[in-house]
Amino acid sequence: MIRRTLSDVLLRADVHDPDLNRHSITVGEVRTSPDLKVATAYVLPLGGNDAKGALEALRRNAPEIRHLVAKALTLKYAPQLRFQLDETFDRLDDTRRMFDDERVRRDVEAPNEDDDAV
């Protein structure tokens, strides 16, 4: 719910900061603390361009973003928002490269000797 609301706030450019509004930011995941008072949003600007600048703009505008997200949610407390770069796309690329390696592909495609024993 927080991820969807945060994405909507960023998509509509409700925050009055031109540095933030020039970025198209994807919110990949939001993890909350057990008491829901802290929410860490994993974000990445479209194409990964100027990720550091986008992250700085998000952190600088976190109080205003928190207020906008809280207005749309029905939680007892508005969570404190923290922003981190989403690195899952980088890990996916590394995994794809690993599976493209001839040695790994050969091992994955090799027949399992245990299958014959059954």
CATH topology: GMP Synthetase, Chain A, domain 3
CATH superfamily: K homology (KH) domain
Which radius of gyration do the C-alpha atoms yield? 20 Å
Tally of alpha and pi helices? 7
What strand order characterises the main sheet?
1-2-3
What string, H for helix and E for strand, traces the elements in order? Answer: HHEEHHEHHH
Distance between the termini: 47 Å
Low-confidence parts lasting 5 or more residues at pLDDT below 50? none
Number of strands: 3
In this structure, how is the largest beta sheet organized? 3 strands, mixed
Mean pLDDT: 85
Number of domains: 1
CATH architecture group name: 2-Layer Sandwich
- CATH domain class: Alpha Beta
Could you estimate the helical fraction of the residues in percent? 40-55%
Quickly give the structural class. alpha+beta
Features:
118 residues, GMP Synthetase, Chain A, domain 3, three-stranded mixed sheet, 7 helices, 3 strands, elongated
